[in-house]
Amino acid sequence: MRLENMVIAAARDILVPGFGRSEYDYKADGSVITPADISMQQRLQSELAVAWPDYAMLGEEMSEAQQRDAITCTAGYWCIDPLDGTKNFTAGLPFFAVSVALVIDGRQQLGLIYDPLRNEVFSAIRDRGAWLNGCALMATTGNATVEHAIAVIDMKRLPVALAVRLVTEGPYSSQRNIGSSALDWCWLAAGRYDICLHGGQMMWDYAAGSLIFSEAGGYSRSLDGDQVFRGKLEARSVLASADADLFDYWGRWIGIPF
Fold first, then answer.
1. Checking DSSP bridges between strand 195-201 and strand 150-154, what pairing results, if any?
2. How much is the pTM?
3. How far is CA 121 from the centre of its chain?
4. Which residues pair with 220 in a beta bridge?
């Protein structure tokens, strides 16, 4: 079974029926978890192991020890967020997705993100491009100046001083935050946002999305000036734009050492 078909079928069987009607609990870090998170991860883990037995599995709902073991697999590993936007999912807010990346030798080789409510499949293969439902995807922005830009920003994870500065001096036209990092990457690649700033995404939040965005021609860095994905089990901040000039301006305004 193709990866795309596998992910679509699992999401339609597990996520769509539970949308807005799921029970939930809280993990130790305060984030929400539902039975759908567990069911999606278990199903994908099982099916991926059958189709590609050489690769390990790193899923959000695994223990940290299991995740670190996966990174050491010499053949490579799947990095999966079975339900990105879980709080939206439980509340009935239509912004969530499944994210799958294949990492080999510390580099993303393939990324796929599926939005089951809009039936949108975003995908990429390293050095071969990105696609939306099979059509070539090229990151563009309709707003070439920061004064007209739509920014997607997660305020609560940013350094306090930077968050306050953005609230009081933000240079963009308007600001959004839909609560799904996977969709943020994809919607940037599709030109639905102009600039992005996030204070801390986990590996499964950015593994597939940053590859899709990069292969679509977008620009991204972490706030330390380094690339976002480094093949490590670490939280990373994100600054991104589809437009080179906007990306440069955004980085200089914030003070990133490019």
1. parallel
2. 0.95
3. 13
4. 240
Please state the domain count of the chain.
2
- Dist. CA 61–CA 50, nearest whole Å: 20
- Is 141 inside a domain boundary? no
What CA–CA distances, in Å, run from 235 to 27, 73, 158, 200, 225?
17, 20, 12, 5, 14
Q: What kind and span of H or E run contains 104?
A: strand 97-104
β 56-59/77-84 pair status: parallel
43 and 86 part of one domain? yes
Chain-centre distance for alpha carbon 85? 10
Q: How many angstroms separate the CA atoms of 30 and 157, rounded?
A: 14
Domain co-membership, 18 together with 114: yes
CB contact at 8 A, 169 and 97: no
Q: Which tens digits make up the pLDDT trace of 27-38?
A: 888 888 999 999
Among 93, 115, 136, where does a domain finish? 136
Position 143 confidence tier, pLDDT thresholds 50, 70, 90 = low
| Nearest 10 degrees: Cα torsion 43, 97, 34, 230 | 80
For position 67, which CATH number holds?
3.30.540.10
**Residue 240: HSE in the Cβ half-sphere, 13 Å Cα cutoff:** 37
